[in-house]
Amino acid sequence: MNIAVIGTGYVGLVTGVCLAETDNQVTCIDIDDEKIAMLKEGKSPIYEKGLPELLQKNIGEGRLHFTTDYKEGLANKDLIYIAVGTPQGEDGAADLTYVDKACASIAETLDHNAIIVTKSTVPVGTNEHIKETIQSGLPVHVTINVASNPEFLRQGSAVHDTFNGDRIIIGSDDKQTLDILEKVNAGFDLPIVRTDLRSAEMIKYASNAFLATKLSFINEMANLCEKLGANIDNVSDGMGMDKRIGSSFLNAGIGYGGSCFPKDTRAVISVGKDADYDMQLLENVVGVNERQKVILVDKVMERFKDIQGKKVAVLGLAFKPNTDDMREAPSIFVTENLLEQGAEVHAYDPVAADNARQILSDKITYASSVKEAVNGADLALILTEWNEIKAFPLSDYKQYMNNPVIFDGRNCFDLDQLVGSSVEYHSIGRPTVYS
After folding, report:
1. 2-195 against 293-434: fold identical
2. Which of 391, 431, 385 is nearest to 409 (CA)?
3. Catalytic residue numbers?
4. Which of 30, 143, 224, 276 is the most exposed place for a label (fewest CB within 10 A)?
5. What would the pLDDT profile of 308-355 be if each residue is shown by its tens digit?
6. Which CATH superfamily is domain 293-434 in?
């Protein structure tokens, strides 16, 4: 089919590239001239495994195009995907400014019947607003239908997830629209769930809110394990064997970040307030996560009392491995706290350093390797579980650090590995190892 995708951010670009890969003609639209020029050359503006290869392949085979011109981008398109950002507003609600701008541009340009498909994460009822906004600005002879097709992609494995996910959700109050969307998504060979418009919008929020809840729950248990002398690894393993619970998202650490969980949990809380319903559980989920982000600094201060002038190696800056995304990354809060305590922070991330420089304090020194970051350090903090960081030998911490003390916010090492390493090791929800 002929498809337009509005927005070439994380969701829009992955969506456009993967729809082209399933033999559709796709034009991606963005108002950022520099980004579109970059994409036309086959260069991805985001770090995502497998994306550059598919981008270049589908451009070369003539299925994927990029433009800043709405008239060109919407010409003869059967489906128009809205995949623009919905950042968190000051009140926690989703900010629909970019969605509204996309709707206005569609209304000004579209001259034929089409289906508008919302990929952006939006509050329940937004698609009805989208239809009303666009339809009111269109010529009399042009009509649209709307659908919700939320994404469930993990950053760092988004391309893989597109073709190997658990399900595809399509929601509309029009049967023919659902039939067309089901045909378009058949190329991904995944289970397709058809539902009404509002339920599809809610499924996205409910899914992310549940996963955030699971993470905050296991972090609460980890903190309690430390006080009681239990090991959260053993607790998680035992819990995860219960099929009703499952083992995924039971990894204790320093909290979740990124573009989805923080924003979506707060958005659900805001939606609840608008509906005069107090989301008490999610309020606590957010509170636990905020506390968890700085728990590693608390451990540092309990151990050292004073870190004024000490060199601290911070390993990993992105909110998770295999992405350069710094949004809501725990490293933001950790480095800020370390600097406030007078520490000299030396940071390393294999991919996210450039983005980090735009967000973190300019007092931070950036290293080009794990070895450079830990060399001469008095303590090291692991914030992102990159394979490169997990593979760095414990013996090298002893060799290069002034004081081989590690605070691991991602529980990268098995405690048995620490035996005889001469490294002092603090982690989350597990006993401290003094070897």
Report:
1. yes
2. 385
3. 260
4. 276
5. 999 999 999 999 999 999 999 999 999 999 999 999 999 999 999 999
6. NAD(P)-binding Rossmann-like Domain (3.40.50.720)
Does residue 273 carry a pLDDT above 90? yes
Q: Round to whole Å and give the CA distance between 164 and 190.
A: 7
End-to-end CA distance of the chain: 62
Select from 90, 87, 92, 89 the least CA-distant residue to 272. Answer: 92
- Global confidence as pTM: 0.93
The alpha-helical segments, DSSP class H, found in 168-317 are: 175-185, 197-228, 232-240, 261-274, 280-292, 295-304
Q: Crossing angle of helices 126-137/197-228, nearest 10°?
A: 140
Question: What are the φ and ψ backbone dihedral angles of 53, each rounded to 5 degrees?
Answer: -65, -45
Domain 204-291: give its CATH code: 1.10.1040.10
Q: How far is CA 334 from CA 212, 260, 294, 298, 315, in A?
A: 20, 20, 6, 10, 11
Please state, in angstroms and rounded to a whole number, the distance separating the CA atoms of residues 269 and 251.
24
* Domain covering 2-195 in this structure, CATH number: 3.40.50.720
Residue in 310, 302, 318, 308 with CA at minimum distance from that of residue 346: 310
Tokens 């980004």, residue located: 35
Long-range contacts formed by 296-305: CB under 8 A, 24+ apart? 296/254, 296/330, 296/334, 296/381, 296/383, 296/407, 296/409, 296/428, 297/334, 297/337, 297/338, 297/341, 299/407, 299/426, 300/338, 300/379, 300/381, 300/407, 301/341, 303/405, 303/426, 304/379
Largest CA distance in the chain: 78
For the chain, the domains span 2-195, 204-291, 293-434
Give which of 16, 18, 21 is closest to 82, Cα–Cα. Answer: 16
DSSP assignment letter at 138: S
